[in-house]
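BUG: 3D viewer hangs when loading the predicted structure for this chain

Environment: internal workstation, default settings.
Expected: structure renders.
Actual: progress bar stalls at 90%.

Input used:
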Amino acid sequence: MTVRITKFVDEFAQLAAWTGEPEEQVRAEPDYHSEERDHWLAWDGDRVIGALHPWVSPDGRHRLYYDACRADAYVPLADAVEGECLATVNVADAEMLGALTGAGFVEQRRENLYEIPIRRVAAAVPPDIEIVTADRTDLEPLMLLDCALRADIPGSQGWEPDPVWFREETYDSPFFNPQSYRVALHGGEYVGLARIWEALPGQERRRLGAVGVLPSQRRRGLARALLAQALSALVGAPGADIVKAEVDATNLPSHHLLTSFGGLINGATVELRRPALVRP
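Structure tokens produced before the viewer hung:
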């Protein structure tokens, strides 16, 4: 039977029946009520068999986030998005990986998945650096630092400043913990950060979103000091005692940093790319 694709309107009951989540929980998800986000459903008759939540990131690319999908739903859902697409797939998910690569998605890069124990680690702060919690920062310089650091992260080049998005995803986010989001200042300049997000719904582990330092301040132990303070803030906090992280497989300095904190690799993901579709 041909899989049918429709744009999500208000099929909360059908989506909840497919995902197994309570309907009230699905209805409470803010993204379903945003005029800036499209959501797509795959159907077999009158039954949902997959869902896709594309997001246009500040670099202009469509990033594909799938709910649970039947094998034959991955590609038709992706075809609903015309622009250039990126999809991240766990290397252990042979079904999804095979479906997308068979439809023209090409591997762009790989990331190793890490588990880092939450514990206190001694790390000296350079004497001319002050490290503050993120609730003591201003939006614009923190946003510009974020963009500058992303320029060195594979897969994030071209990230453009977006104050509205940045506020929503940082200060106003329910997963923002200013104590585990540390920012380094050199005089009045923002020069580095380490941020650990609170666990997403349905997950027990927090996530290391980023740790990075501007080129002028590297090789001084600053990244280590930032990460040490972010992790120390979580010692004894409720929740799992492990933080997860993803690092590009070619990024040896980050690998050495995380393993120095006791981080261990426990898997990998592949980022797949598909160019924009050309409709007949």
